[in-house]
């Protein structure tokens, strides 16, 4: 087994952003329960969210101003330019979710809500930086346990309780499968470090235990990204969880999960073992194809915008799995670009859903009828978000798909499967445009049930307009983000 010197100074320097979030989460609890306990609910939520946003900004500023590379315990945790980019993206998404939570009324415990959001973000950031099986598992559990609690935070909603229970049960099963697969990898290689696993597996032939380990790891990580056939939790969780929580699950959680999936793929496909690499690629490609097919077809039958976005997320996970299967630095960077832009757009879409639900009491298609006349700015924002998710130029969603599919086609060794899967994905994207347009039809064509303007706070409107503007500008100037994401 590998041995290495432990430098706790490096550990502290790597985890300063996470430490900032943890300290702020404790501060939020102290302020909310110690000083604002008798204040009104809106005042408590505002104070908690402001502190949460400040913590996210401070952690992001530290990452922006401290470039360089560091590692701890033989690369168990790493901090490099690619990890920093993923972590900054996660912090931005968390800040946006908290800004959209100011008007939230689903909980009487705003301090606990914001504190758990920050702890979930800490888990996401550790997942993105982890390069050791044990650290990956612990970080994923911190993330998952936080999200289970957040999904159930609307205590008066039966849907929220049901969503959290299903999320927890499926999550516990997937964690067991993943840990079982990790134990096989450790038994086969004698190390839990991803670099060590890659070196050890490169000298071994393909054995039944290696195949079993890959299948179990694929099952565990497939749950985290909501890939078929490990997707069953997603529609109910997206529908039942409070809107800001659903936005966090659909955004930051996906960025972190795809970051660790890229890292694990790099250790399981060393160049020296084409047969084993082909086995892992086959698993990814089959999961990608099934996710693209089922996600897009099931979305056609939905009448709830939340469930539509859930099945859409399954399809988008399939697109990103194709990039991971290509396993090149360019495809890895394209996956990060796709994950970040998809997450940003999804946060905006859930922000609009939250406003509509608060005014109409429902997220069904009919609740969006006449939105363009009741609130033109909100309707325009939803138009940008959905068309970007469909991949319509010049929005950023188009460039995300273009870069991803181009990276897959340029990857050496993809052969016929690469071309065939890209053609299939393009056809599925055309299908996705249909169900996104069904929502926009209600927004712009179907007459409103009432002419009363849809109430939205100035802060919510501003945040949604900023997100929509980012989605549009990143589409017009795609290199502004793609040039910032380094190659893995």
TrEMBL record:
Membrane topology: Multi-pass membrane protein
InterPro entries: NADH-Q_OxRdtase_suN/2, ND/Mrp_TM
Residue ranges that the Swiss-Prot or TrEMBL entry lists as coiled coil: none
Catalytic activity: a quinone + NADH + 5 H(+)(in) = a quinol + NAD(+) + 4 H(+)(out)
Keyword Cell membrane included in the entry's annotation: yes
Ranges that cross the membrane: 12-35, 47-65, 77-101, 113-130, 136-155, 167-186, 206-233, 245-272, 278-301, 308-329, 335-356, 377-396, 416-437, 458-485
EC number: 7.1.1.-
NADH:quinone oxidoreductase/Mrp antiporter transmembrane domain: residues covered: 130-417
HAMAP family membership: NDH1_NuoN_1
Subunit (UniProt): NDH-1 is composed of 14 different subunits. Subunits NuoA, H, J, K, L, M, N constitute the membrane sector of the complex.
Function: NDH-1 shuttles electrons from NADH, via FMN and iron-sulfur (Fe-S) centers, to quinones in the respiratory chain. The immediate electron acceptor for the enzyme in this species is believed to be ubiquinone. Couples the redox reaction to proton translocation (for every two electrons transferred, four hydrogen ions are translocated across the cytoplasmic membrane), and thus conserves the redox energy in a proton gradient.
Protein name, entry field: NADH-quinone oxidoreductase subunit N
């Amino acid at each position: 087994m590998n041995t290495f010197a432990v430098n706790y100074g490096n550990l502290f320097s790597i985890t300063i952003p996470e430490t900032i979030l943890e300290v702020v989460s404790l501060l939020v609890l102290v302020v909310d329960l110690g000083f604002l306990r008798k204040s009104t609910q809106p005042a408590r939520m505002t104070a908690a969210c402001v502190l949460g946003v400040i913590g996210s900004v401070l952690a992001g500023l530290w990452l922006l101003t401290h470039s360089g590379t560091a590692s701890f315990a033989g690369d168990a945790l790493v901090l490099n330019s690619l990890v920093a980019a993923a972590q900054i993206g996660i912090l931005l998404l968390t800040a946006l979710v908290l800004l959209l939570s100011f008007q939230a009324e689903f909980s009487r415990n705003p301090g606990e809500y914001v504190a758990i959001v920050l702890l979930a973000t800490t888990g996401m950031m550790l997942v993105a930086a982890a390069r050791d099986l044990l650290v990956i598992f612990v970080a994923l559990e911190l993330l998952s346990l936080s999200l289970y609690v957040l999904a159930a935070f609307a205590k008066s909603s039966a849907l929220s309780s049901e969503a959290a229970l299903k999320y927890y049960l499926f999550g516990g099963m997937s964690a067991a499968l993943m840990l079982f697969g990790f134990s096989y990898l450790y038994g086969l290689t004698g190390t839990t470090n991803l670099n060590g696993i890659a070196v050890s597996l490169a000298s071994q032939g393909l054995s039944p235990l290696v195949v079993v380990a890959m299948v179990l790891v694929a099952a565990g990580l497939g749950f985290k990204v909501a890939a078929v056939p490990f997707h069953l939790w997603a529609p109910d969780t997206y529908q039942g969880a409070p809107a800001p929580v659903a936005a966090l699950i659909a955004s930051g959680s996906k960025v972190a999960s795809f970051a660790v999936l890229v890292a694990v793929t790099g250790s399981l496909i060393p160049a020296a073992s084409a047969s084993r690499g082909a086995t892992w690629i086959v698993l990814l490609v089959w999961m990608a194809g099934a996710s693209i097919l089922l996600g897009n077809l099931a979305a056609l039958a939905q009448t709830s915008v939340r469930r539509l976005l859930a099945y859409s997320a399954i399809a988008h996970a399939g697109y990103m799995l194709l990039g991971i299967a290509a396993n090149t630095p360019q495809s890895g960077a394209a996956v990060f670009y796709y994950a970040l832009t998809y997450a940003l757009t999804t946060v905006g879409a859930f922000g609009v859903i939250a406003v509509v639900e608060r005014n109409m009491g429902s997220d069904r298609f009919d609740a969006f009828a006449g939105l363009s006349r009741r609130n033109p700015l909100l309707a325009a924002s939803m138009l940008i978000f959905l068309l970007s998710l469909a991949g319509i130029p010049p929005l950023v969603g188009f460039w995300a798909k273009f870069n991803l599919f181009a990276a897959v086609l340029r990857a050496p060794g993809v052969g016929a499967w690469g071309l065939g899967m890209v053609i299939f994905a393009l056809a599925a994207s055309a299908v996705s445009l249909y169900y996104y347009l069904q929502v926009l039809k209600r927004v712009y064509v179907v007459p409103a049930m009432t002419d009363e303007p849809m109430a939205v706070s100035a802060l919510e409107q501003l945040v949604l307009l900023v997100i929509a503007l980012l989605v549009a500008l990143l589409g017009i100037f795609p290199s502004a983000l793609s040039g910032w994401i380094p190659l893995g």
